[in-house]
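Query structure, 220 tokens:
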């Protein structure tokens, strides 16, 4: 089985670089981004962890917590943080989960349940599928899953864009079109009838097709 959008994000307890957490309690009433890594001291992941540290204020503005995971022990993460600071300019300023027993990676179906072995002896290639991004809502449901290969750095600006869309569409009965950016026009959700839409949008809408009803982004 695999996880899907709409599933409850599996809860777990784990040690992190900022102490022990229970995942659902740690999320609280926030949104959350969990992004995983196959191994400490890997080049692409080093750039990603540094970039996320620089972007943390943008996630904070969106009431979104960020947390990393890597298939190594917390003490290894601490040594890696020094490299990240020296090479990327910023050390991780968010927790990174230690997963030396592969428990969380297997819980989130990033590794097969039968995976085993000493994490320190497993290579990044052994763990290459641990390259996911999960966005979790305050309801603890998974809202987004992205999976990247080891050789391609992740686009965390896109994760921010998706969170903007998710938060908007959670509050208003709209959808966002291709390449949408905050402030641009949106689409009235298909679940809203024309009669309902007239009450919500008395000023009307543009409709190049009956099923494509375009309105300005709601302001509140």
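Result returned for the query:
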């Amino acid at each position: 089985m695999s996880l899907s959008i709409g599933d409850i994000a599996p809860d777990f307890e784990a040690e992190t670089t900022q102490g022990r957490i229970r995942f659902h309690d740690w999320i609280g009433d926030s949104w959350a981004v969990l992004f995983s890594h196959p191994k400490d001291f890997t080049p692409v992941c080093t750039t990603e962890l540094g970039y996320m540290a620089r972007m943390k204020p943008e996630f904070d503005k969106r009431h979104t917590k960020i947390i990393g995971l890597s298939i190594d022990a917390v003490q290894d993460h601490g040594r890696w943080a020094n490299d990240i600071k020296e090479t990327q300019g910023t050390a991780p300023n968010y927790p990174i989960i230690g997963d030396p027993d592969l428990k969380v990676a297997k819980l989130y179906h990033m590794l097969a349940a039968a995976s085993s072995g000493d994490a320190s002896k497993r290579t990044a290639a052994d763990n290459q599928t641990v390259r996911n991004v999960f966005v979790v809502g305050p309801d603890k449901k998974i809202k987004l899953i992205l999976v990247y290969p080891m050789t391609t750095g992740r686009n965390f600006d896109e994760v921010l864009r998706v969170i903007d869309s998710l938060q908007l569409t959670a509050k208003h009965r709209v959808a966002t079109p291709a390449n949408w950016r905050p402030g641009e026009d949106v689409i009235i959700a298909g679940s809203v009838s024309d009669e309902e839409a007239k009450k919500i949008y008395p000023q009307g809408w543009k409709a190049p097709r009956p099923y494509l009803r375009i309105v300005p982004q709601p302001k509140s």
